[in-house]
């Protein structure tokens, strides 16, 4: 467990430590960062977790060696770079950087801090993957299905757009995070032309690229993603995860994900990654469209994401595979097995509030969760709650009951 320190205290503590191998720098320090820390700690990698506040669930984990404050990159990239370089200098060895939300990834590749190795592609490649306009162009070239999409500019004819795509439709940004900072979400459902015009005007005012997309009447429980680490040489470690349950059920965040087998998804996602040349950890998201009887590509996240603990539990430790390539260490896995991942706060909320939701966990699953026997054995893993590492769950509980807040969901 690491107390969250000021930047000056963090640098001083690291300065007093001798590292036998390069530490991992994880930014930010919440649910995704916690999973990455646990994955790396399992291979004895020292972990430094940084964030703009200490309220995330990762700092109190026993798998985090140091935790402390750095300047939030969206506030001041130059100061962020200085903070990271001070940490690297204090460590006396290179750091291996893991950005756990888009703004942290962008900050690392944009500022290129001295003393930090990045186990993923440069900004130009990342932008080609994250920008839905260029991503869908690549998909079109490869014959990978995706939802019908229309770019929206300030001069867009909203009547023409709604006639083409129908109503309701959805509006998405080319880049998620900048839109989220303005409107608080990365997807807006549009019911009429006036609402569409309002969003177009707001995007133009904020200089944000957006697009309208035909609303896909997806099949609940059939969303799939390819979770992968693709090395600089093109070698890929991957598995397909099925988001069996979301909260809210139709368009919410994943709260129960299971390993699945969908060869078409793996083939299509890897084709996109190969074509773009992206290397690093990524999640390629697909939804199933009953009308087209096809899996449609939605996004590719070029970083760890909330349920990255699933591939780790299944035997594909994507964070350590990335770390090993960055440090020329060896990583071998013993094959991939079935696994399930659950984020209990959202899952329990569904059970408590949605009368139409049927529990997907068995009696044995629940007893294993209650008595702690799932921790270290079996095919079920969790996002935060681990009896062997209890402090993150306590931090999450305090957040859930209003004792404190955290600025980022994952």
UniProtKB/TrEMBL annotation:
Q: Return the InterPro entries for the record.
A: ATP-grasp (IPR011761)
Coiled-coil ranges from the UniProt annotation? none
Please report the stretch or stretches of sequence annotated as the ATP-grasp domain.
136-327
Q: Which PROSITE patterns does the entry link to? A: ATP_GRASP
Keywords for this protein = ATP-binding, Ligase, Nucleotide-binding
Molecular function as annotated in GO = ATP binding; ligase activity
- Protein origin, superkingdom: Archaea
Presence of the UniProt keyword Glycoprotein in the record: no
Protein name per UniProt = Carboxylate--amine ligase
């Amino acid at each position: 467990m690491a107390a969250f320190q000021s930047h000056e205290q963090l640098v001083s503590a690291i300065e007093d430590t001798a590292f036998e191998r390069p530490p991992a720098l994880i930014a930010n320090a919440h649910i995704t960062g916690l999973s990455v820390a646990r994955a790396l700690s399992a291979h004895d990698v020292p972990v430094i977790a940084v964030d703009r506040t200490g309220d995330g669930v990762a700092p109190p984990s026993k798998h985090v060696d140091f935790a402390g404050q750095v300047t939030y990159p969206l506030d001041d990239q130059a100061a962020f770079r200085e903070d990271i370089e001070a940490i690297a200098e204090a460590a006396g060895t290179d750091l291996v950087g893991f950005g756990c939300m888009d703004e942290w990834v962008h900050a690392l590749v944009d500022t290129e801090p001295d003393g930090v190795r990045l186990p993923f592609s440069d900004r130009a490649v990342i932008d080609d993957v994250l920008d839905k306009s260029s991503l869908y162009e690549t998909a079109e070239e490869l014959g990978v299905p995706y939802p019908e999409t229309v770019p929206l500019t300030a001069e867009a004819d909203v009547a023409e757009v709604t006639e083409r795509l129908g109503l309701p439709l959805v509006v998405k940004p080319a880049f998620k995070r900048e839109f989220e900072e303005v409107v608080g979400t990365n997807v807006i459902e549009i019911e009429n032309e006036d609402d569409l015009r309002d969003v177009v005007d707001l995007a133009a005012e904020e200089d944000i690229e957006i697009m309208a997309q035909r609303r896909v009447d997806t099949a609940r429980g059939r969303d799939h993603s390819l979770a992968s680490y693709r090395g600089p040489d093109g070698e890929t470690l991957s598995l397909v995860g099925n988001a069996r349950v979301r909260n809210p059920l139709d368009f919410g965040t994943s709260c129960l994900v299971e390993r699945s087998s969908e060869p078409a998804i793996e083939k299509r996602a890897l084709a996109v990654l190969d074509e773009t040349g992206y290397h690093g950890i990524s999640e390629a998201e697909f939804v199933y469209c009953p009308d087209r009887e096809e899996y449609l590509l939605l996004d590719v996240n070029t970083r760890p994401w909330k349920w990255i603990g699933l591939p780790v539990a299944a035997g594909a430790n994507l964070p350590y595979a990335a770390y090993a390539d960055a440090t020329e260490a060896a990583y071998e896995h013993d094959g991939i097995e079935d696994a399930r991942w659950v984020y209990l706060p959202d899952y329990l909320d569904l059970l408590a509030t949605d009368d139409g939701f049927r529990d997907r966990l068995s009696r044995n699953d629940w007893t294993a969760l209650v008595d702690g026997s799932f921790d270290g054995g079996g095919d079920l893993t969790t996002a935060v709650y681990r009896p062997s590492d209890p402090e993150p769950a306590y931090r999450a509980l305090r957040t859930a009951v209003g004792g404190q807040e955290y600025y980022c969901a994952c």
